From TrEMBL, chains A, B:
<comment type="similarity">
    <text>Belongs to the class-I pyridoxal-phosphate-dependent aminotransferase family. Alanine aminotransferase subfamily.</text>
</comment>
<dbReference type="InterPro" id="IPR015424">
    <property type="entry name" value="PyrdxlP-dep_Trfase"/>
</dbReference>
<feature type="domain" description="Aminotransferase class I/classII large">
    <location>
        <begin position="98"/>
        <end position="478"/>
    </location>
</feature>
<protein>
    <recommendedName>
        <fullName>alanine transaminase</fullName>
        <ecNumber>2.6.1.2</ecNumber>
    </recommendedName>
</protein>
<comment type="function">
    <text>Catalyzes the reversible transamination between alanine and 2-oxoglutarate to form pyruvate and glutamate.</text>
</comment>
<dbReference type="GO" id="GO:0005737">
    <property type="term" value="C:cytoplasm"/>
</dbReference>
<dbReference type="GO" id="GO:0004021">
    <property type="term" value="F:L-alanine:2-oxoglutarate aminotransferase activity"/>
</dbReference>
<dbReference type="InterPro" id="IPR045088">
    <property type="entry name" value="ALAT1/2-like"/>
</dbReference>
<dbReference type="InterPro" id="IPR004839">
    <property type="entry name" value="Aminotransferase_I/II_large"/>
</dbReference>
<comment type="pathway">
    <text>Amino-acid degradation; L-alanine degradation via transaminase pathway; pyruvate from L-alanine: step 1/1.</text>
</comment>
<dbReference type="GO" id="GO:0030170">
    <property type="term" value="F:pyridoxal phosphate binding"/>
</dbReference>
<comment type="subunit">
    <text>Homodimer.</text>
</comment>
<dbReference type="InterPro" id="IPR015421">
    <property type="entry name" value="PyrdxlP-dep_Trfase_major"/>
</dbReference>
<dbReference type="InterPro" id="IPR015422">
    <property type="entry name" value="PyrdxlP-dep_Trfase_small"/>
</dbReference>
<keyword id="KW-0663">Pyridoxal phosphate</keyword>
<dbReference type="Pfam" id="PF00155">
    <property type="entry name" value="Aminotran_1_2"/>
</dbReference>
<keyword id="KW-0032">Aminotransferase</keyword>
Length: 491, 491
């Protein structure tokens, strides 16, 4: 190949190359949609083209995508969205009156009564009011101010925006952000993109992935030697680890954040996904306010929620919100300015969020069906959480904490030195080697633990518990069989 | 107030303040939703509360938000969206068969046949194929590859993503990005956020806001002294200036980009909005390929389109795409990784985009109504473009170029020295002073020219031509009366 061809046909080479592109972007990693998923998509194409494989379909248990796994949307939500999309349907007798009332109310709040108009960049005002009332009900009456609510394009959008506000300084003054290990890789990706310093604190696998303040302190002390730690991120219920924090633990974290002068970011998108006996979701906001004014009037915090998880699983709509507490009014003005550049979050997602925070009430015609659908989804998830833990703990070489909440299991794999050496030989991280082999042999797509972070020398994978119960059983058994084969092969 | 109270109740002050937040964010400005719009929203609240004003409603001509100004959605689009939202409607006789077929096809391409599932981060594959076919039809058969199409959350999202890839270097090596003045402030905002160097080239107001390569060269030569110019951004049809570039001009720009080794970004979101006799939209892609392989195989380019403008005006759905040409495959892999962090663009917006690029065909039942609605919107816009130019050019002290395309007029205001002095006295930029006064006295919300950039000593405002014809006439006359009064007051 001539030099010119190698340079993309130009003697000077391309304007934009791997060498001269944004170096922060190069550092970004996002395992949930990484190489293993790209290979899964390829395999699906091969299957379609008639290539013979030891399986007939690829089961994607790599991402918390409930509808893709067959979960049906909540009827009421979709009725209102259809009415908002095509308001001529408001004349149709087929739709219940409460769905029509919700749609009318949303449309009245839209410019020109159309969901095709932009909204205020912070989100439609009456929806922010509904969000505030939802938070108040959830938190036993602790007040929430609609002015402190920002609607977003999924929770990811709000999390990245909040991190962006917080990052400043150079060298040893660069902002450091504490994230749990294992973590959801949106955090590490956003920090790489922003060139912020990632500070790892480890969850305790032996204690059901619990969070210990001593570990937070160790990690912070260490980090202070080389950066300026300003932010503490918590995911509760945990992703990928599925633990649900106790009230006491949340109190300890808040006290720590106050003492150490840290901005708290509480990712609470799985707040309805709590399954384990004795576990309960406690919002950081509620605990903060119950700790008294010394805390509730000083600790700065943002908490995040989404339409993508819980019982809705409406990932495709990209709906979400954040509530900010004790934020400097001047910073809030900057935040509003920043979000205005992207104009507004998608209106269908805003409308959906409105229904999530303001669902059918007992005296409304859609209530019974809504509650039936909601309860069925959450009960099935609880059942699948139990099933997963139970089957995985029968696999020799697996250690699996209970899935107390969220949508994932993150079992620990005991890999032999021979397997580890073989992976190294192939230039792969051992758990990536394991998951790739599982994909090729069984058509099951998981995410290696290394994509979330784990203690050196330990290996895990993340699997969603979302497939329908029968299929989940099948997947769990397939993984067990594979693991036994794998163990034998590398013993 | 005690020091502690001033510090947000903490003796150490807040974690996050205006002083220690991200300095890039502080530099961001976005006039289209700036202070004047915030004041407009306030005035609307005052009117609701019964405060007496010299007007009864605020007319927001600050933003290209067609539905908010009363434009009705295209029936076919909304029918399909309702069907996708609530597939039970597929059984309903009320919907035409082509709408049902489109909905079925979209749903089949969605995970679990639900628009609530995530899609591939690059966008749903069959929609990217439809986009590629749309581009091929538009560009007279020049091939388009679905792998080079990236669906996005409105065009803004894709533009920011593309800029992000391109920014690197420090000091004199920092990436410089050439943007037109006047410009759409998304560009300056994104560059501030990315700490890239903004390089201004001026459009020629005397020549209908034409783009002259000599001015590009002047601006580039100047910029090379202090940064590394790598990108040239073009908006055609122009925003806020409404010019439509000739084929010759586009050829000159492409030749310049090749000679000067610049990455081209072509913002073509107003491609259907061309009104002036003798003007025609030429896509950069088509011209590039017609210039022969010397250009079409070397010049790196991204072009952007959106569901928010043209005849659809569906801003709230945040749909859009970009097509990349001659991008380094390794960079494309990085781009896919980067967009995967945000999971996917909203599915309702992707579905809407599919309908825009694949509208009803002559042999389909919805064709007649679709064409009637589309034609009516574009004809009304053409009429309003003419009306605006005509009335504004009767105002003494206004100079108004024809609105050849897009959705805005950007007239030049002759302000007296007395008015300029008065504005300075009040600490305001003169055209902000003018627009604020217009808002307070007439309830009309425009954006000052300073928000887009303009030659020193000249003053403008941007006004959309979107209000319904009668209301637009009323607005134009109100502005004329105001200007006469203003001129008298400060003569």
């Amino acid at each position: 190949m001539s030099q010119e061809a190698a340079n993309g046909g130009s003697p000077r080479g391309r304007v934009l190359t791997l060498e001269n592109m944004n170096p922060n972007v190069k550092r970004v990693e996002y395992a949930v949609r990484g190489p293993i998923v790209q290979r899964a998509v390829q395999i699906e194409k091969e299957l379609k083209e008639g290539v013979k494989k030891p399986f007939t379909e690829v089961i994607k248990a790599n991402i918390g995508d409930a509808h893709a796994m067959g979960q049906k949307p909540i009827t009421f939500f979709r009725q209102v969205l259809a009415l908002c999309s095509y308001p001529e349907l408001l004349e149709d007798d087929k739709f219940p009156s409460d769905a029509k009332n919700r749609a009318r109310r949303i449309l009245e709040a839209c410019g020109g009564h159309s969901i095709g108009a932009y909204s205020a960049s912070q989100g439609i005002e009456c929806i922010r009011q509904d969000v505030a009332r939802f938070i108040e009900r959830r938190d036993g009456g602790i007040p929430s101010n609609p002015d402190h609510i920002y609607l977003s394009t999924g929770a990811s959008d709000a999390i990245v925006t909040m991190l962006k506000l917080l990052v400043c300084g150079e060298g040893r003054d660069r902002t450091g952000v504490m994230i749990s290990i294992p973590q959801y890789p949106l955090y590490s990706a956003a920090l790489a993109d922003l060139a912020a310093v990632q500070i790892n604190y480890y969850l305790d696998e032996e204690k059901c992935w619990g969070l210990d303040v001593a570990e937070l302190r160790r990690s912070l002390t260490e980090a202070r030697k080389h950066c300026n730690p300003r932010v503490l991120c918590i995911i509760n219920p945990g992703n990928p680890t599925g633990q649900v924090q106790s009230r006491q633990c949340i109190e300890d974290v808040i006290r720590f954040a106050k003492e150490e002068h840290l901005f708290l970011m509480a990712d609470e998108v799985y707040q309805d996904n709590v399954y384990a006996e004795g576990c309960k979701f406690h919002s950081f906001k509620k605990v903060l306010f119950e700790m008294g004014p010394e805390y509730s009037s000083t600790v700065e915090m943002a908490s995040f929620h989404s339409t993508s998880k819980c019982y809705m699983g409406e990932c495709g709509f990209r709906g979400g919100y954040m509530e900010v507490i004790n934020m400097d009014p001047e910073v809030k003005a900057q935040l509003i300015k920043l979000v205005s550049v992207r104009l507004c979050p998608p209106i269908p997602g805003q409308a959906l969020l409105d229904l999530v925070v303001n669902p059918p009430q007992p005296d409304e015609p859609s209530y019974t069906l809504f509650m039936k659908e909601r309860t069925a989804v959450l009960a099935a998830l609880a059942e699948k959480a139990r099933l997963t833990e139970q089957i995985f703990n029968t696999v020799p070489g697996f250690t699996c904490n209970p899935v107390q909440g969220a949508m994932y299991t993150f079992p620990r794999l005991n890999l032999s030195q021979k397997a580890i050496d073989k992976a190294k030989e192939e230039g792969q991280i051992p758990d990536m080697f394991y998951c790739m082999k599982l994909l090729e042999e069984e058509g099951i797509c998981l995410v290696p633990g290394s994509g979330f972070g784990q203690r050196d020398g330990t290996f895990h994978f993340r699997m969603t518990i979302l497939p329908p119960t029968d299929k989940l059983k099948f997947v769990l058994e397939k993984i067990r069989d594979f693991h036994l084969r794998f163990t034998q092969e590398f013993s």
